[in-house]
Amino acid sequence: MFNFDDASQKSKEAMEGMLKGYSDMAKGFQAIAAETSDYSRRSYQDMASFMESLVSARSLDQAYQLQTNYMKSSYDALVAETTKLSELYADLTKFAYKSHETVVPVVSKPAVAAEAA
């Protein structure tokens, strides 16, 4: 027989699991946004200091060397940032999967039991 108290309890557990999952997702998106913002700030500062150095270059060879160094460091920073962001996105995906992994069995057990009865 269908027990409303059990159904209410399972519904409450499922809702709490979903809210925790959404909270974890929001934290993940906040971490990604913060990291992207920090990278943008660092990139802008690096470009500004490069432009100051380039303007003060005394020869074409010095300007070429400054530009080469800036491009190398800029590329290395981009690769590092991309790696960091891909790890954050992977963590976000794990959180999303984990939240559904805990909710589905809680919701489906009463339904399976009701069908069997």
Q: Report the C-alpha radius of gyration, rounded.
A: 26 Å
Query: What letter string, H or E per element, gives the SSE order?
Result: HH
Q: In total, how many domains does the architecture comprise?
A: 1
Whole-number mean pLDDT: 85
Residue fraction in strands: under 5%
Decide which structural class fits the backbone: mainly alpha
State the major sheet: none
Helix content: over 70%
Distance between the termini: 7 Å
The number of helical runs is 2
What is the general shape? rod-shaped
Q: Uncertain runs with pLDDT below 50, 5 residues or more?
A: none
- How many strand units? 0
Structure commentary:
- The N and C termini lie close together (7 Å).
- The chain has one domain.
- The mean pLDDT is 85.
- The chain has helices at 4-55, 60-116.
- The protein has two helices and no strands.
- It is mainly alpha-helical and 117 residues long.
Which keywords apply here?
117 residues, mainly alpha, rod-shaped
Topology:
Layout: H1 4-55, H2 60-116
Helix pairs in contact: 1-2
In brief:
The chain is an all-alpha fold. 93% of the residues lie in helices and 0% in strands.
